Amino acid sequence: MPKVLVVDDEPKILKIVEHCLIREGYEVITALDGRQAIEQFHRQEPDLVILDLMLPHIDGFQVCRIIRETSSIPIIILSVRNEELDKILGFNLGVDDYLAKPFSPVELCLRIKAVLRRTRQEQHTSNPDLPTFSHRGLLINPATREVFIDDVLIELTAKEFDLLWFFVKHPNKVFTRKQLLYQIWQTDYYGNDDAVTVLISRLRDKIEQSKSQPSFIRTLRGVGYKFVICCD
């Protein structure tokens, strides 16, 4: 039974989410502020965190930073803050999904299932027999999920690696943002493909020598993106 930590300073929201998740068969633990969230995270070791942003003592962004220092467990933001900058900051911190309030409990449960399903698939796809990929100074080891640029280890988040490896498996093929959204988040319920733009921007920051003239991930205006493999 997956264990979910729900963090929100509104008791009514906590009750709604808790009732929804218990009905779906999840074990639920709750926290009313950022300090409690961090304490519960370390004590209970949940499988997923649902996190509000506007929290007493320590806000949700800082809670996310602290969790990401030691863990890559899925984090879903559930917040009344629905501005694009908030979403960009959240994804840059490594959150897995972002749902604005007011929200549908049914949609929240669907997103939780999708995130947990993807996490299980990531855990089961580590295969020591998978070949490494090497091209123009980029080296990827899918078994260890490590990426090197000119022999220097590059730290990628789970979804940054997933996106890069998906591109590598489909070289020179163009994908729309919606197609990439489904492949990486594995859900049709996210509803905002800006997350793909943010993810690609972060990935380019880490693997490209020049973001203005990328050599690996190219943009086709009005169409989408492709990972370019060509002869040197």
TrEMBL record:
InterPro entries the record matches: CheY-like_superfamily, OmpR/PhoB-type_DNA-bd, Sig_transdc_resp-reg_receiver, WalR-like, WH-like_DNA-bd_sf
Record-annotated DNA-binding residue ranges: 128-229
Keyword Transcription regulation: yes
Residue numbers carrying 4-aspartylphosphate: 52
Keyword list, A-Z: DNA-binding, Phosphoprotein, Transcription, Transcription regulation, Two-component regulatory system
Response regulatory domain mapped to chain residues: 3-116
Domain of life assignment: Bacteria
Residues making up the signal peptide according to the UniProt record: none
Domain called OmpR/PhoB-type: residue spans: 128-229
Alphabetized GO MF terms: phosphorelay response regulator activity; transcription cis-regulatory region binding
Pfam families: Response_reg, Trans_reg_C
Entry GO CC: cytosol; protein-DNA complex
Keyword match DNA-binding: yes
Function of the molecule: May play the central regulatory role in sporulation. It may be an element of the effector pathway responsible for the activation of sporulation genes in response to nutritional stress. Spo0A may act in concert with spo0H (a sigma factor) to control the expression of some genes that are critical to the sporulation process.
Protein name in the entry: Stage 0 sporulation protein A homolog
